[in-house]
Amino acid sequence: MSETTTAEIADKPGVHPAADEQDRANRKASSIEMQGLHKRFGRDTVALDGVDLDIRAGEFFTLLGPSGCGKTTLLRILAGLEEPDDGSLVVGGKNVTEVPPHRRSVNTVFQSYALFPHLSVRENLAFGLKMRGMPAAERHVKVDEIADFIKLGDLVDRHVDQLSGGQRQRIALARALICEPDVLLLDEPLSALDAGLRSQLQVELLRVQKRLGMTFVFVTHDQQEAMVMSDRIAVLNGGTIQQVGAPREVYERPVNAFVARFMGHDNLYPISNRQGGRLTTALGTLTAEDPGDGELLLIRPETLDLLPGKVEGDNHLTAKVAERLYRGSHAEFRLEIGDTTLQATVNNRGRHLPEIGETVTVAVAPEDLVTLHE
Ligand SMILES: Nc1ncnc2c1ncn2[C@@H]1O[C@H](COP(=O)(O)OP(=O)(O)OP(=O)(O)O)[C@@H](O)[C@H]1O
């Protein structure tokens, strides 16, 4: 364990900024290597179908995918709550495939708070330390430090049932952090919270992780949340990993149509004819610079320019505005080109934002067009 205490790295007056860096250096955040992980439930359910994944020490890593894709199973295997049928798991250079949960330096925060409702915040936070045999006086100090760190100092003597959902989730996080695990697993910890509180806690969680330099493995099915929080994301489907990459990579360069759709892309069009870079879809024919050999054309909504009226030119399409969602910083449009729809996002820099029913020209650059396989 690190010599530096949690309080020393808290962002409070009097703490030398170098304490942060020092603690990061001291803390032995762990890398995680998974190889060939398989898990089956009963005869018919394949939860994991050969997962190979490397997570770097100190990384905020997210497992993203639809319900039933195997995210929770993978997390439970990391925690030691589930045993893989096949494959190996190495944490911090040590093979822990057969090591029981309490002997791994891994802690978990679940979606439901999993706190003891009849105990005070202080008792909840101290629970794990008590189990480890830490003396009472030392526990007291440690609880105050962590409560301060996570900005719950004034709540420690309250009972858990007197707290709001957001406060309970912060306590659950504090309780997982207090034992200073090398790896923290988070299974949709924010999904029960309303939108405002959720985005506030997203920012807090990210700050805590960066400050502690711990390895976080975060599970979500919300692609926006994954993009905001993560250093890297693994997109799962049907127990297999589809793509691993930084948020921008996964959003801008999805490797297949599943990943593209899951990252929120709707502009996917079957290619009916192709001559070199000239690709024909239901939208018309467009020129792409280096489109690859996929059978679907992907057009990212934010790569489109909307010009008023009909403007002739290469890679120009004439469209009609069917829907406009004004969002202040930007506006989202649903455009109709014949029977086909196209989504466009336009940055609001005081430029013309077309009205519903208006005819516009959609312009797209050849380098922004890519093709994907189903
Ligand atoms: N204990 C179990 N017994 C039987 N089947 C299970 C068990 N746990 C998971 N499964 C099945 O394994 C598959 C993967 O489940 P898992 O919970 O890992 O998915 P998930 O991606 O976390 O889904 P969600 O987002 O809904 O929590 C699913 O088909 C699920 O029904």
From TrEMBL:
Residues 9-26 have a biased composition (Basic and acidic residues). It comes from the Bacteria. The keyword NAD does not apply. It holds the Pfam family ABC_tran. The keyword Nucleotide-binding applies. InterPro entries: AAA+_ATPase (IPR003593), ABC_SmlMolc_Importer (IPR050093), ABC_transporter-like_ATP-bd (IPR003439), ABC_transporter-like_CS (IPR017871), Mo/tungstate-bd_C_term_dom (IPR008995), P-loop_NTPase (IPR027417), Transp-assoc_OB_typ2 (IPR013611). GO terms for molecular function: ABC-type transporter activity; ATP binding; ATP hydrolysis activity. Keywords: ATP-binding, Nucleotide-binding, Transport. SMART domains: AAA. PROSITE patterns: ABC_TRANSPORTER_1, ABC_TRANSPORTER_2. Residues 32-263 form the ABC transporter domain. One of its GO terms (cellular component) is ATP-binding cassette (ABC) transporter complex. Residues 1-27 are annotated as: Disordered. PANTHER family: SPERMIDINE/PUTRESCINE IMPORT ATP-BINDING PROTEIN POTA, SPERMIDINE_PUTRESCINE IMPORT ATP-BINDING PROTEIN POTA. This is ABC transporter related protein. It comes from Chromohalobacter israelensis (strain ATCC BAA-138 / DSM 3043 / CIP 106854 / NCIMB 13768 / 1H11).
